[in-house]
């Protein structure tokens, strides 16, 4: 079985983009006999951009855990833990920081891009620059063979591979395993306003979102802008709503919406009315499980403590082997 490690930052409840871009794949890998899965909640990573306002992180950890479990992540089938409650992540992050050239970190494409896009925050801190080093520590602590990532995260993983090679070369060892990327297709879902899906834009549909609000958001969702009138023909291939249909609707409904859009035999409201019941049913299924979990889990750290022993022990053994390799 290939060892797989993946995690998500607790920046709030998860949304449909998170589900189809990552979480759905996590559950499928967990339930496969091909993979040995470890999933964590990356609260140290959340601090890299939210260090000035950390008080929400603990509540968001609970939100992510509830979404994990409601969507099918199982503490019986996978190792599940919270990053900051395993001290070896921080220790190995420190050790690997000593051997990682700053120039490697500065050339990461997302470093400059995020600094430009998040202009309202001071991101001149080392934690933000050193994100790939912490990511490397996360991965190698569990001898991960594969890391499921989107194409945009590939440069980060390549730095992880370089750090592993440099460490092993410096100390004449093979104690750290070089991870491989498991590229997953990024979610093609746009936000309800037609822009990139982002919590900061307020255009996402949360897995826990009130159903009436979901219906309202979907009814006003942007479609093909060339359809100014009901009688205008449209192009489903450039319509954000049609991408949702591809995930939720039947083949017959897909064909009906595509043909109807191109011929203007159905309007955008008709198209949305076909989609909405499917999304509502999907969310209601998750939310019914989530409601039960909310009553059972008040403190995510306490809940996961008995399930985190194995991962903590494994990480401790890896740090011990790193120390031995370095002679410290």
Summarize the structure in words:
There is one protein chain. This protein has a 3-stranded parallel β-sheet with strand order 1-2-3, with helices on one face. A two-stranded parallel sheet has the order 4-5. It has helices spanning 16-30, 43-50, 57-70, 87-97, 102-106, 109-117, 126-129, 131-140, 154-170, 211-219, 240-248, 251-263, 268-296, 300-304, 309-326, and strands at residues 2-8, 35-41, 79-82, 146-149, 180-183. Helix 4 (87-97) crosses helix 8, helix 10 runs antiparallel to helix 13 (268-296) and helix 11 packs across helix 13 (268-296). With 328 residues, it is mainly alpha-helical. The chain starts with a strand and ends with a helix. The protein is built from 15 helices and 5 strands. It is elongated, with a radius of gyration of 22 Å.
């Amino acid at each position: 079985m290939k060892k797989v490690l993946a995690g998500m930052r607790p920046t709030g409840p998860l949304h449909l983009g998170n589900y189809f871009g990552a979480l759905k794949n996590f559950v499928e890998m967990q339930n496969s006999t091909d993979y040995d899965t470890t999933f964590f909640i990356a609260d140290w990573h959340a601090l890299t951009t939210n260090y000035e306002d950390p008080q929400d992180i603990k509540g968001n950890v609970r939100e992510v855990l509830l979404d994990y479990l409601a969507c099918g992540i199982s503490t019986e089938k996978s190792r599940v833990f919270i990053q900051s409650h395993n001290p070896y992540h921080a220790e190995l992050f420190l050790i690997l920081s000593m051997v990682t050239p700053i120039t490697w970190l500065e050339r990461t494409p997302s470093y400059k891009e995020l600094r430009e896009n998040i202009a309202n925050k001071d991101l001149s801190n080392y934690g933000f620059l050193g994100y790939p080093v912490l990511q490397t520590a996360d991965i190698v602590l569990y001898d991960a063979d594969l890391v499921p990532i989107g194409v945009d995260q590939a440069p980060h993983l390549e730095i992880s591979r370089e750090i592993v090679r440099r460490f092993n070369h410096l100390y004449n060892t093979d104690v750290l395993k070089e991870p491989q990327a498991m590229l997953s297709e990024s979610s093609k879902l746009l936000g309800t306003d037609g822009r990139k899906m982002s919590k900061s834009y307020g255009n996402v549909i949360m897995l826990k979102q009130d159903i009436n609000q979901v219906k309202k958001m979907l009814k006003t969702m942007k479609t093909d802008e060339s359809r100014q009138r009901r009688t205008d023909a449209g192009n489903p291939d450039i319509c954000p709503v049609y991408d949702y249909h591809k995930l939720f609707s039947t083949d017959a409904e897909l064909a009906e919406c595509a043909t109807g859009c191109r011929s203007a035999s159905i309007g955008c409201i008709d198209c949305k009315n076909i989609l909405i019941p499917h999304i509502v049913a999907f969310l209601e299924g998750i939310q019914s499980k989530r409601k039960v979990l909310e009553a059972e889990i008040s403190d995510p750290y306490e809940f996961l403590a008995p399930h985190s022993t194995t991962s903590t022990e494994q990480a401790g053994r890896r740090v011990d082997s790193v120390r031995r390799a370095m002679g410290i």
